[in-house]
Amino acid sequence: MPRIANLYFKTAIIFLILGISIGLHMSISGNHAATGAHAHANLLGWVTMAIFGVYHALNPQKAARRLATIQYAVYTFGVAVLIPSLYLMLSGNAAMEPVVAVSSLIAFAGVLLFAVIIFSSGEVVATAASPAR
Question: In this structure, how many other beta carbons lie within 10 angstroms of the beta carbon of residue 96?
């Protein structure tokens, strides 16, 4: 498996643990103000990163490109800053709003870089099976 795919899977599981921890904390405390941070940790962290990892595992030529590493760093940094700042903002710290905004834009830049990877030319390892005749 390409190194970048493995990194994505490892990072995704960390975000799943974080997302579940936020959910447990909300449930135990009865305070569900941070639901948005819980959802973002699970969707942007766990689900999206796992999907990025699968794509790279299926396309090792694209995973080997320097752009894949840059994209991983940009997206991961954006999400890693977004989740705690969103948690703090939703918990009542309004001063975190600019951090949430900037980190959201950084995560979005990571998504745009992933789009460049997908739409770039290169051999695709996984292909759809042709229907039987």
Answer: 18
pLDDT, tens digit (0-9, with 9 covering 90-100), for 52-108: 999 999 999 999 999 999 999 999 999 999 999 999 999 999 999 999 999 999 999
Contact 56/4 with Cβ under 8 angstroms?
Answer: yes
Please state the domain extents for the chain.
3-119
Angle subtended by helix axes 3-29 and 66-90, to nearest 10: 10
Cα–Cα dist 79/77, whole Å: 6
Q: Is 26 left (phi over 0), alpha (psi -120 to 50) or beta?
A: alpha
CA dist list (Å): 22 to 77, 120, 129 = 19, 37, 41
What pTM was estimated for this model as a whole? 0.88
Separation between Cα atoms, residue 7 and residue 72, nearest integer Å: 9
Q: How far from chain centre, in Å, is Cα 9?
A: 10
Between CA 36 and CA 43, with CA 38 as vertex, the angle to 5 degrees is 90
Place of tokens 């299926």: 58
Retrieve residue 111's tokens: 């998504």
